[in-house]
Amino acid sequence: MTDDILTVHDLFYIKGGGERLVMTLCEHLPSDLLTAETGENSFDINQLKSKVYNLNALGRIPGIKTWQLAKAFKKPLPVQRHYLNIIYSGVAAPLAQCHFNQANNVFYCHTPPRFVYDKKNHYLKSLPVWQRPALKALIRWFRPQYEAAVNNMEVIIANSRHIQQRIKQHLDKEAQVVYPPCDTDYFNWQSQGNYYLSLGRHDPLKRIDVIIEAFKALPDKQLVVASGGSQSNQLKKLAAGHNNIRFTGWLDEPQLLDLLGNCLATIYIPEDEDFGMTPVESMAAGKPVIASCQGGIKETVIDQETGLLISGSNLKEKLIQSVQSLTPNKAAAMRMACEARAEVFNRQRFIEGIKQFLK
C-alpha cells in the first residue's frame, strides 16, 4: 500500500502535534513522506521504513521560511513514483498539489495559516515597523496560491470542529473532522509527583509568561517548564530568582515521558489553540490539565473531570486559584477519567478516520 500514498508535510523542526501526526500516517497507513526540511530537535524521519524525500529547502537567511517552503513545493519534485493518494499537512505543503493533479488530493488542515487570516494583525504588530511591508508582501503573494491549492483538493479534513469552523469562515470550504492521533500506550502514569508541568512551546501565543507569573506568586508550588522556542531567554529572565520554577530546555523522548508520567498535573493555556495535542497526551498519562477554555481544547478536556478549564480576563489569578484547588488527591482522583478520555483520540480511530477518504 506504500506505493499508493504520499504524505507531504512542511518541515520537521520540532516534536509538535503535526509532526507526530505525520509520523503516524507514515508508520500506520503506511505512507511515503515528502518534506522540505528537517532539524535536530524533531523526530528522526530516517528511521521510517517508508520512502523519504527531503528537499533541504531552507537556506541561512532568517525570516523567509514560508517563502522558501512555498518555492520548494512549487518546483519540480524528486518524486518518480506514481501515487494514488496524496495527503498534505502544513501551511506551504498544499502548494505541492500542482504536481499531483491526477491523484486523490486530501488536505489535513491543522489551521488556515494564521499569519494570513485571523492572526494577521498580531504578527504584523510583533514585527519592527520596517519589516511589516515584507510580511504584507508575503501575504499578498502567498494567499492566492494557497487558496488555489485548497480549491483543488478532493477532500479537506479539519483536526477539530473549531478548525472546521475556521476553514468555513476564511476559505468558505466544507471540511470533515478527524481528530489527531495520540499513542495512548506511549504515555503512562508513573507516580504522583509534586510539580506542575508546562510542555507548551515558548511562543507568545502559548502564554507561558502567564504561567510563570502565576507561579511567582505561588512560591510553595513547583513548576517545570519544558521544551523551548523563540521566547526561552525572555521567559528565563522573567522567572529569575524564583527557585520554584525550573527550565529543562528541549528534552529527548524518555526524559519527556518521565516528566509527564511523574508530574501532579500539566498546564496548557494557549490563546485560541487549533487543537492541542499536549492536553490529550497529558490525559493519556493519567494527568489532569489546567487549560484555557478556548479553541480545540474545549473538545478534549472535560472541566472538573479530566482537568480545570479557565477563561476570560484575569487569567493569572484564575490560574493561581486552579493550581491551589487542584490538590494531589483531586488530581489522583481524575486519573481514570483522564485515561478513558484520551482513548477517544487514539491512533486506531485516527487511521480509520483517514482511510475513509482514501482510494
UniProtKB/TrEMBL annotation:
Residues 16-185 form the Glycosyltransferase subfamily 4-like N-terminal domain. It catalyses: a beta-D-Man-(1->4)-beta-D-GlcNAc-(1->4)-alpha-D-GlcNAc-diphospho-di-trans,poly-cis-dolichol + GDP-alpha-D-mannose = an alpha-D-Man-(1->3)-beta-D-Man-(1->4)-beta-D-GlcNAc-(1->4)-alpha-D-GlcNAc-diphospho-di-trans,poly-cis-dolichol + GDP + H(+); an alpha-D-Man-(1->3)-beta-D-Man-(1->4)-beta-D-GlcNAc-(1->4)-alpha-D-GlcNAc-diphospho-di-trans,poly-cis-dolichol + GDP-alpha-D-mannose = an alpha-D-Man-(1->3)-[alpha-D-Man-(1->6)]-beta-D-Man-(1->4)-beta-D-GlcNAc-(1->4)-alpha-D-GlcNAc-diphospho-di-trans,poly-cis-dolichol + GDP + H(+). It comes from Marinicella pacifica. InterPro entries: ALG2, Glyco_trans_1, Glyco_trans_4-like_N. GO terms for molecular function: GDP-Man:Man(1)GlcNAc(2)-PP-Dol alpha-1,3-mannosyltransferase activity; GDP-Man:Man(2)GlcNAc(2)-PP-Dol alpha-1,6-mannosyltransferase activity. It comes from the Bacteria. The keyword Glycosyltransferase applies. Its EC number is 2.4.1.132, 2.4.1.257. This is GDP-Man:Man(1)GlcNAc(2)-PP-Dol alpha-1,3-mannosyltransferase. The lineage of its organism: Bacteria, Pseudomonadati, Pseudomonadota, Gammaproteobacteria, Lysobacterales. Keywords: Glycosyltransferase, Transferase.
